[in-house]
Every structure is written in C-alpha cells, then in structure tokens.
Amino acid sequence: MSSFDESDAFEAASVPLSQRAMMGRAAPYLDELNPAQRAAVEALDGPVLMLAGAGTGKTKALTARIAHLLNTGRARPNEILAVTFTNKAAREMKDRVGRLMGQTVEGMPWLGTFHAVCVRLLRRHAELVGLKSNFTILDTDDQIRLLKQLLVAANIDDKRWPARQLAGIIDQWKNRAWTPDKVPSGEGSAFNSMGVELYAQYQARLKVLNAVDFGDLLLHVVTIFQTHQDVLEQYQRWFKYILVDEYQDTNVAQYLWLRLLAGGHKNICCVGDDDQSIYGWRGAEVGNILRFEKDFPGAVVVRLEQNYRSTPHILKAASGVIAGNTGRLGKDLWTEVEAGEKVRLIGHWDGEEEARWIGEEIEAMQTGTRGMRAFSLDDMAILVRASHQMRAFEDRFLTIGLPYRVIGGPRFYERLEIRDAMAYFRVSVSPDDDLAFERIINTPKRGVGDKALQTIQRMARDNGVSLVNGAALAVEQGALSGKAKTEVARLIGQLSIWGRAAGDDAQSHIELAEQILEESGYTAMWQNDKTPEAPGRLENLKELVKALESFENLQGFLEHVALIMDNEQDDGGAKVSIMTLHGAKGLEFPAVFLPGWEDGLFPSQRSMDESGLKGLEEERRLAYVGITRAEELCTISFAANRRVYGQWQSALPSRFIDELPEEHVDVLTPPGLYGGGYGAAAPSGFGSNIEDKVASANVYNSPGWKRLQKRSGQRGTSQPSEARNITIDMAASSSFTAGDRVFHTKFGYGTILGIEGDKLDIEFERAGAKKVVSKFVVPADRAGDDIPF
Ligand code: ATP
Ligand code: MG
User: Fold this and answer.
1) CATH numeric code, 414-561
2) If 0-12 CB within 10 Å is exposed, 13-18 middle and 19+ buried, where does residue 746 land?
3) Which of 629, 693, 759, 770 is catalytic?
4) Angle (nearest 5°) at CA 351 between 349 and 357
C-alpha cells in the first residue's frame, strides 16, 4: 500500500508564506455575488445545496466558494475535492478560481472529473482490490476484445449474444455500483441468464491483466471505501471540503462515492438543476439531487432565481418549453438584462440548405447583420442533438472556408466507422491502397488473424505487388486456409466488382457506396452491435452516403475528404464551435444555433421508443439546456425534408417548436419562399422530377409548415396554391439569355453569365457570383415590379 503522504497531492507542507500573506485579505470575489450566492459561499461548514435554474450563477458561486475556502485559510488547495463532469469544465473552474484569487492556483490535484480523481485514488490503493498501482485503463475496443474471448471460451455464439451488448449491461451495473456479488437477483435473466457469471469472469480476467475499464475507476474506489474503514476515514479527514457541480447528473456509483467521502464532517456543497438532468440514459439519477436534504439533514438550501446569462426572450422561451414536463420543482427565473432579440425560428427546405443558411448567417454576423452587433466566431456555437448532424455543417464550412472546431468528439471524417467505410471506398477505387486494405481486411471479422495477415504481407513483398494482389496470390497458392481462405477470396472478388462499378460512369456512385457497405458486411456488423453507440454509428454511415450526393463519383469524394483532412491544423484563430447538446452543458455563448428541430431527430425517436414519456421529458430538458446556452441570440431551425439514402423524407417540425411561447419568437422568412438563395440552395436535380414535386407539395401542406406560415404571416407563405406555383415554376426553363441584366430581391442587380435549364449563373454587382433559379429574378428594367411569387 502506498504510503499516505508520499504523493504531491498529500504533501503535508504548511501553508506557504505567500499564501498566508494573502489570507484574510479583502475578498473582491464576494462583491461580485448577489446575496443568495453569497450565502452559499459564506456558509462554509456543513452541507449546502444550490438548486437553481440555468445561468443563475451556480458554477460562479461554486468557484467563489473555493476561492473563499482558500482565502480564509479553511483549507489548503490540496485539501479541497471539487468534481465536475467534463475536462473542459474542470479546466475552466481551475482558471476561474485563479482569476478570483488574483494568482495562479497551484496544487489543486483534486479538482477534476470524477474519473480523473478516481484514477488518482485508485493508483494509491490499487492493491486493496487486487491490482498493481501501474494498472492500465482499457478502451472500449480492448474491453470488447476481452469479452469476446470470454464468450468463445464459454462456447457462446457472439452473433446471437454480442459482446458489445454484454459490455453495455456490465457498464450499467457498474454505474449502479454493483460488483458481481451485488447484482440483484432480479437481473439474473440478463444476457440469456449468463450475464452475472460472465461479469464475474470478466472482472477476474481484468485483475489478471492488471487492467480496469472506465466503470471500474469509480466502482473500485467505492469498494475500497466500503471495505476499508481506515482508508475511508483518512480521506474523510483529508478532504476538508467537497464541492460538486452538475450534481443532477450523478449516477449511483458517484453518489455513493460522494456520500462516503462526506460522511464525516459533511462539508459538502452540491449545485445543480433538476431541469438539466440529461444523462438518465447513462444511469444518472435526478433523484440524487432531490434527496439531498434527506441525505444531509440541516443542509443550507439556496435557491437562485436571477439569471445573468440570457436575455428575457431567451429565458422565457426556455421556460415555456420546460413547463411541458411534469414533476418538476419549478422555478421562476428573471433577469435584469434588456429584452434584446427574440428567439429566431426558421424552417428550411432541407438539411443542406439549413447548413448553407447558417454558414451565410454566421459570415454576415461577423460584421453585423439585421441591425445586430457584430459577433466574433468564438462567440458562436452550433449545438446538435446527434453527432451525425455535424457532417453537413463541417462540409459546408470547409467549402466556404469558415473556421470551426468540434468540441467533445472527433470531427465527422475522423470517426471510426467513417474511416472504415472510407477505407472500403478507397481500396475499391485504388486497389493499391495497402493502408486501406489492411484496415478493412478483418473488419468485419473474416478470420484473418495476425498470422494470416503476415502471410499476405510477405506474399506481397516477395512479389513486389500490392496487398490485394498479395492476398490473391496467398489464396491461389494455398498459403491461407480455412475461413480466412474463403473469406479473403470472397473479399477480393467483391473488390474487383466494386472497382469495375466505380469506373463505370453509368453506375450511381451512391448506390455503389451502399452496395459496398452492405455486401462487405460492414453495415451488418454495426446492426448486430448492441452497444449504445451502435445506432449513432449507423446514422453516421447514412450521413456519409448522403455526403456523396454532392459529388460526381467516389473518386471526387475521396479527393475532397483527403484535402479537408490535410487542412486541419489549428492556427489559434477564432472559430465557430460545433458540439452536441450533451457536451454543451454548463457552457455559454453569445449566439447559439440549434438546428434540426424535427420530430424523430429532436426529440429523438430512439429515446422516445426506449423510454416513452420519460425519454421525451429528458429530450425536453435537453431543449432547455440548448436554449439556455445562449446569451444574446438563439436561432432554432428545422428542415422540411431530409434526404435519407437518396430518398426524400418529409419531416415534421419538432413538437418543442410549438411549445415555444409565440410572443418571444420571431419567425424568419424561409429563404426558399423569400427568393433569396432558394435556387442556389436547391439540391441538384431539384424540381426536375415528380417525386421532388410531391415532396415539395407535402412540405407546404404539412401541419408544421402551415403553423409556421400562420405565425410568420409573410407574403407568399400563406397559400398552398402559391406553393404549388413554385413547384411548377421551378421546373420551367428560363426565358433569359446570357448577358441579360437582371434584378433579384436579395442579391440586387447582376448580369447573367450562363444558363443551365432553369438555373442561371449570375454575377451580382454586390453579392458576387451565384446560381439562382430563373423565377427569382426579373429583367433589370422591371426591378420595381412586384416579383411574381
Ligand atoms: P448552468 O446551469 O448553465 O450551469 P450556472 O448556474 O452554473 O449555469 P454560471 O455559468 O455560473 O451559471 O453563470 C452564468 C453567467 O452569469 C456567467 O457568465 C457568470 O459570470 C454570470 N454571473 C453569475 N452570477 C453573477 C452575478 N452575481 N453578477 C454578475 N454576473 C453573474
Ligand atoms: Mg454551471
């Protein structure tokens, strides 16, 4: 057992002189707080709960409390345990404390995420749970591999009972702090009644490997505290004060861990908001925060109601939505901030147009638009429900050269499943691409182990050929056997068929891409995968196929991706942030875009299917989190159509849109009906076939679209008959000729450079070159006339 005060975290050094000299000095950070916050900061001893709505200064008060503990000499930096949920939040908290103290805060080793703090604790006491202090932390892939070995050993068919599903079950048990012996008998039927036994085997195997998975970090520490009273008491004494942000999202294991640590002095301060509990699907229990006063009798409970983040319109819009949930504590938020802009709502034709519009809007907002101030790119964020939504924005921003960063996850083309699928495309187009071939030869599993791969590599090297050809030789010459032989032979055959199709202009590259993903078994691999991430990966694959639509062939697409991947160094300049709603918790931005508010996407169909009303309410809390991230400007959008596998699917606006209180919402005119950019925005081939027309008619007749029209009251959006006109007109060919001078309501005057069916290439005098549909322009000498739509 490592000695207790060896580590830097526990240096028993006395308070440094420099710090002592600062103690008891004026506390300017207190002046920045309102009386309620101040009460929470100054109630230093005993339990404190701050349960309050978004943007009311919970995190601010929490950091001020840390500064106050240090400033008053109540605790040294390494005696304070402060936990939050993300690394980003932890970093920010450390910086904020530093700013409040007017000096960099050295040595707060126990300020971090639950996981980071637990790694530290577990390293010191690993032997108490049968590990060595240099244990390794497995990633998901390693974890799955290990579970598969166990399934093989137990003669369990991985196809029927996938390892990933077992991993998900074990994870949920760990979130509840159940070691194998504590899994309740009611769970006995899990994983075909083999779950508990396999869990026990898995834990035993991890010990032999001196390894832990993510869930173990908390579980082991809780076990240590529960079984070694002496160790627990040491820490209860050491951590003089405990602070927790986002307490509403703690799971059972985290909750137990905190209760054990705070069990002595009970100097625990938790802050959170029941309306922002968004991790129920990962085992978070909102009940933890609601039970706080029971767990810690005599707690000082502080409610904050003044919001300092957002304008009244934003706040009221958010309150209007969350009011739809039942069983809330309910809070009245108010602000002194002036009214500002209403929440903006805009409906788009399709997802691509939504991305295009947001791109244009962000560009315009940098210099100020629609009478608003200018926003820096750093001030703007796009928050999406599902990570696959990021693709359209990333592609668009790369095309127009708008700098962006993806927070909390890889960029779209860096995702595992996207890299795998791209490798299939690459090796189909260029059979010499050895790296791509190596990536896919055993994904999905084809029985090609390390030995078979070495054989293929040797074959290729000896004959001076590519790996694909090396593999073909290996099959021919009998160097492979069994499953590897038949499967590799099949793959080579498929690659040659796909390669021919890729070179055939008559063949649709979109269909080919789908064919490759299907026939290779890659899609099926994720369909059979029962982990929580699998559905997201399948959606990303669909999104990848959608991305192909903007290119003529696979080759062109592959070049595009190669170029953008090459172009990603961070120059430290300002950037728009793109992240999921989950990742945005606790953050704030002057301007926020919330795209994709369509039923099924948001609220997410999966969440509703799996958890019914509970799921819907969690989605609604996510909507509340999203809106309340905005300080000045919140723009919600939806698309009337999404294209899935080349097929239009009409989408209904999210039910949350109708929950927005009308008086706080400005409906922006959809660009299509306004004439600005609709033509430019229409996907290629748009308006040229019946299906598209039907789709467009559906949009205008859909209840959501009608609601939007009713609210907007804009010219040209109120009559379905006019909508039909648009559809018909769009197919009509142009009566203009190149060289004509024309006028467009949004872009102004310009000259036609070229004509393609009903689309005109126009060089606008102010707006530059654009492609627009002819019906949206009139001859320049008729600029004053009412444009006929
Ligand atoms: P969330 O629920 O979203 O996590 P929160 O309650 O943690 O929100 P903070 O992030 O602490 O809120 O504060 C929101 C914003 O209001 C921050 O910009 C913060 O600096 C500011 N703020 C908080 N309290 C005050 C105050 N008393 N005076 C002025 N500004 C304040
Ligand atoms: Mg906060």
Assistant:
1) 1.10.486.10
2) middle
3) 629
4) 75
Per-residue pLDDT reduced to its tens digit, 125-177: 999 999 988 887 776 767 887 898 899 889 998 888 999 899 999 999 999 99
Sequence ranges of the chain with CATH classification 3.40.50.300 = 27-120+222-304, 343-403+573-711
Cα–chain center distance at 527:
21
**Does the structure show a pLDDT above 60 at 515?**
yes
Q: Which one of the ligands is nearest to 590 CA?
A: 1
246 labelled catalytic: yes
The CB-based long-range contact list for 527-533 (8 Å cut-off, 24+ gap) reads: 528/159, 528/162, 529/162, 529/164, 529/165, 530/162, 530/164, 530/165, 530/168, 531/140, 531/164, 531/165, 531/167, 531/168, 532/168, 532/281, 532/282, 533/140
For ligand 1, residues with CB inside 6 Å are 32-34, 37, 54-60, 273, 276, 308-309, 586, 588, 628
How far away, in angstroms, is 173 Cα from ligand 2 center? Answer: 28
The answer as to CATH 2.30.30.140 being correct for domain 730-782 is yes
pTM for the full predicted model? 0.71
Q: Over the range 316-354, which residues count as b (16 or more CB within 10 Å of their CB) and which as e?
A: bbbbbbbebbeeeeebebebebeeebbbbbbbbbbbbbb
Which architecture, in CATH terms, is 27-120+222-304?
3-Layer(aba) Sandwich (3.40)
Angstrom distance (rounded) from CA 327 to CA 99: 39
CATH of domain 343-403+573-711: 3.40.50.300
**And the tokens for 577?**
């942030």
- Give SS3 for 350: strand
pLDDT value, residue 709:
47
C-beta separation of 323 from 660 below 8 A? no
Fold category of 138-209 in CATH: Arc Repressor Mutant, subunit A (1.10.10)
**Ligand 1 pocket test, candidate residues 41, 51, 60, 84, most atoms within 8 A of CB:** 60
- Cβ-in-10-Å burial (0-12, 13-18, 19+) of 427 comes to buried
Residue 319 phi, psi (nearest 5): -65, -40
Strands (DSSP E) found in 209-289: 211-212, 241-244, 268-272
Q: Which amino acid is at 45?
A: D
Residue type, 424: Y
Bridge partners (DSSP) of residue 112 are: 83
The DSSP 8-state label assigned to residue 683 in this structure reads P
Domain with CATH 1.10.10.160 in the chain: 138-209
Q: Is 344 a catalytic residue?
A: no
Catalytic choice (79, 171, 245, 632): 245
> Above 90 in pLDDT, residue 759?
no
Task: Supply 478's token pair.
Answer: 């009998």
Rounded to an integer, the average pLDDT of 529-534 is 80
The residues that bridge with 746 in the sheet, in sequence order, are none
Would you say the C-alpha torsion 280, 282, 287, 288 has a positive or negative sign? Answer: negative
- Whether the CB-CB separation of 198 and 150 falls below 8 Å is answered with yes
Q: Is the pLDDT of residue 194 over 60?
A: yes
Q: Where in the chain is the domain with CATH 1.10.486.10?
A: 414-561
Known catalytic residue: 570? Answer: no
Which residues have a Cβ under 8 Å from the Cβ of 539 and sit 6 or more positions away? Answer: 386, 388
Q: What is the DSSP string of 600-632?
A: BTTTBHHHHHHHHHHHHHHHHHHHHHHHTTEEE
